Amino acid sequence: MDGYVPEEVRKCEEFMDRKMKPSLVRATNERNKLFEQQKILYPFFFSDLRKNIENLQKNSITNLRTMVNIGSEVYMQAEVPDTQRIFVDIGYGFHVEFTWDEALNYIPLREELLARQIEECTRRIVRIKADIKRFKEVIDRGKPGPSGRQQRRLHTTLHVGKATRLIASVSAGTREHKQLDWLLRFYPGS
């Protein structure tokens, strides 16, 4: 296997296209959804909820008459006999009954959770982009140079469980081998 093996380079590139790039797209889409949630929740839900609770507390309102959206922007009048406990939408269609203080304590926790989720997605995106860049560098080392000679040999195969994964490197134990071995751990099913 001292000669240049284009099939192995093709398999490495295919792995990058089938596993790594879709992972990047999924992580980016997930972060965009979180940004959209943040854009909706911060100005409307959290600030409105906080203001409404503070107004109820400040004015000592114990019962309330209001209009409730029953769907398709159709409203009906409703009476709330006891305003001391409120239901807060916590996501996925679930509502939790809170006291005013519990709801006010929940708001910053929810804001913090959303910020952490966005930060985690951003870290994952950065990691995947770095992985793709390193993978490309190792693959490029295995391609023929201007002289037509192989710059590096592609020959190492790593057996993990039942799956056989192709790794590009000069030989086992090299820095490139370790980089790709490390990278492949994050892309299951390859």
List the helices and strands and how they pair.
Layout: H1 6-58, E1 64-71, E2 74-80, E3 85-91, E4 94-99, H2 100-142, E5 156-160, E6 163-167, H3 175-184
Helix pairs in contact: 1-2, 2-3
Molecular structure report:
It comes from Punica granatum. The protein is α+β, with helices and mostly antiparallel strands and 190 residues long. The protein has a domain at 6-59 and 111-184. Helices cover 56% and strands 20% of the residues. It has helices at residues 6-58, 100-142, 175-184, and strands spanning 64-71, 74-80, 85-91, 94-99, 156-160, 163-167. The strands form three sheets. Strands 1-2 form a two-stranded antiparallel ribbon. A two-stranded antiparallel ribbon has the order 3-4. Residues 146-172 have low confidence and may be disordered.
Q: What labels describe this entry?
A:
about 190 residues, alpha+beta, 6 strands, about 55% helix, Prefoldin, Protein UXT homolog
Please sum up the structure shown:
56% of the residues lie in helices and 20% in strands. By secondary structure, the protein is α+β, with helices and mostly antiparallel strands.
Number of helices: 3
Helix content: 55-70%
Number of strands: 6
N-to-C order of helices and strands: HEEEEHEEH
Report the β-strand fraction as a percent range.
15-25%
Low-confidence stretches: 146-172
Mean pLDDT: 76
**Radius of gyration, taken over Cα atoms and rounded to an integer in Å:** 27 Å
Largest sheet: 2 strands, antiparallel
Overall spatial form: elongated
Pfam family, one: Prefoldin
Protein name: Protein UXT homolog
Organism: Punica granatum (Pomegranate)
GO molecular function: transcription coregulator activity
